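Quick one, tokens below. Sequence please?
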């Protein structure tokens, strides 16, 4: 994690990768998106997807988990080194969420976030607003998800 002042438009963060398996696709769908093409192979085979595929919400949730895990690792390493920890959040939401193609059983999605906008907050002068474009691509390099997110990032002493 960096202070707002240390970020630049164009900076890239590789969040990590996740491989989707049938059991977790069905489990997530049963709990949160119970459409048959996410829960039943036969129904999925007869759908417009042609095979079992993950919920778009599942692909977003997988990114969230990877992002939080990465932040925790970074914060732990900074703590061990005795570095100051900049505050992040709260997030202001997502926009332009797009599920660009299905995520099938066995697909590995790699998530990447790029800084697209930085501006000082008018309401919280100790913070800036950080906007990221996050994308996920499968093992073939095809984009499967994209969205913009904006969150508060602490500034160095102002």
């Amino acid at each position: 994690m960096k202070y707002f002042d240390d970020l630049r438009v164009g900076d890239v963060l590789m969040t990590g990768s996740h491989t989707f398996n049938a059991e977790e696709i069905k489990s997530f769908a049963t709990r949160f998106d119970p459409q048959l093409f996410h829960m039943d192979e036969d129904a999925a085979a007869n759908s417009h997807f042609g095979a079992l595929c993950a919920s778009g919400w599942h692909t977003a949730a997988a990114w969230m988990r990877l992002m939080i895990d990465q932040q925790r690792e970074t914060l732990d390493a900074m703590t061990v080194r005795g570095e100051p920890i900049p505050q992040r959040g709260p997030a202001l939401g997502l926009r332009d969420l797009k599920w660009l193609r299905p995520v099938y059983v066995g697909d590995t999605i790699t998530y990447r976030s790029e800084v697209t906008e930085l501006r000082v907050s008018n309401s919280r002068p100790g913070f800036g607003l950080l906007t990221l474009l996050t994308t996920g691509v499968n093992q073939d390099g095809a984009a499967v998800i994209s969205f913009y997110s904006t969150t508060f990032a602490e500034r160095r002493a102002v």
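The CA atoms of residues 16 and 80 lie 22 Å apart. Strands lie at 12-19, 88-99, 108-120, 127-137, 143-154.
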